[in-house]
Amino acid sequence: MNLKQSILATLVYHDIFNYPLTESEIYSYLTGSKSSLAQVKKGIEQLIGEKRIGKNQEFYFLNRRKDLPLIRLKRQKFSRAKLKRAAFYATILKLIPSIELVAISGGLSMGNSTKNDDIDLVIITSRNKLWQTRFFANLILLPYKRSPHSKIQKDKACLNIFLDKKALKITGENLYTAHEICQMKPIWDRNNTYQKFLRSNKWTKRYLPNWEPGYQSRAAKSRSDKSAVLSINLSKVESLAKSLQLKYMSSKITNEKIGDSQLFFHPKETQKKVLAKYKYLISKQS
Question: Could you tell me the superkingdom of the organism this chain comes from (predicted)?
């Protein structure tokens, strides 16, 4: 696709989430071939002149979606409060020494949360400690955790992705997954884990060639298990933690992806729906 088609495709994708983009965001999340900021600016100006896209304040959107800037500003307000809540959850999770990264994903990672949204969290664990870490993470956040049986999910912690540090590459390479990886916002990490995660997923550059991380990993190092809270060596019970949790989940698994070193808990087939809608909206632009 040419540059103007790439800009339109970028706006189309975010339109699915009712999310208008700034000029710099169009550049950063540009779908297609790599382009300079100056080239993107010129393409935007041409699309404005052709009345194919609109602008309100600093935000650009597909024509006839003039409501989006107001929606984004409203959701930014909700998201600010939720970010503070997410930081609180991360502070609690730091008590578990086998957790090496806590990040937010989903709408909150883009400042696009609605008032009643929960808070999606991504957790990367030390090697061979995924299942025991999940057990303690769910236990320690039990008073604040999302319940699938409750209608009230506002601000609840949703522990929807766990990755073992030995298996950081995300499979199923497509535009949706690339966005989820690049939009993920770390709250904190140890041992440069976030940068290792990005290096393991360099394939995202095929879909979002301009994107660069805005977060810099800190120099925090893993603490000694002898001095940390919950410091018992549980390496021998990893298999037990796995078997017990799988037994508990067996009657509840629907669209979840359960593996030895990666866990994805998604109650809805969001990816398929988003990519199908994207394909449809792109066809209408041509």
Answer: Bacteria
